[in-house]
Amino acid sequence: MRSNRLVIPLIVVVLAALAGAYWLGRSQPHASQGDAESSALAVPADRRARSAQPGLRNGSRARGYFAELKIAADGGDLAASTRLYRNLDLCRRLRSADWGNAMLTSELLDTQTRGMSAAQLENYRAQLDGIESRRQNARRMSELCDGADAATLDSLVPSLHQAAQLGEPYARACYLAMGPGLDMRALARHPEWIDTYRTSVPGMVEAGLAAGDWAMVNVLRTALQPGAEGLLGGALDADPAQHFRYLKLYRLGAGAGDIAVLDQQLAVAAARLSPQQRAEAETWADTTFRRDFGGRPSAGAPGLDRDPCVFPHE
Description:
Number of domains: 2
Shape: globular
Strand content: under 5%
Number of helices: 15
């Protein structure tokens, strides 16, 4: 029972967050490119009107919704591109949350109540009352995802790539960090995504630096360290000098809480370089910091442990 009391409420929070993000997005008006981040899940008003018409099945609405976003995204609409990859990501996460909720529900229903105290029974009944609420939340979220065909649900990585190419910063950081590895099941059916990733990385890094993208620098700092395994290090043919560059740059913009850790990492990284390599890397970092990142300490660098593939859905 102890594990149920701790874990079941967590599933409630996860599903509630997903449901809130989905329904918030379904209710917002269409956005311009400049409003892409603040209304990433918005649905065009005409689309909402058609979705409300009787006689349209959920599956048809879902396919049409994703198709419309794809058409707009292909036309360079950053807001639509952002909505597309984030809604597909919600569908991906829903599958995991739904399975976890089903398993925990089964565990709860199999729990023996004989011998429970009054307080334990009250807690148990409260958890039972939450089962139906969780099921309804999952069903509402599934309305969009279950109606989309397999090809649509497999298009998360290409949609993420498209948004990253259009300059959406969350998509860029996640795509650089994970690339096609974000959806390994789909990658098995689309090995050509590896080549797309390899050819896209240099341009995205250049664009991220020009935009003063700290999240991207954090991804590079991690991916380029010696011994790191991952697609990004392989695509950039990482070396110790390159790692030191981005580590130094990130240190220049880091918050106070991360400085001690970064200084330790810099000391270890510097020991791998010649004096000339270190001087060149520090010059590059200082120049880039002033030119592209405003030259201000604590100017927005994320925490060291931030997951680049956790997207805002507000």
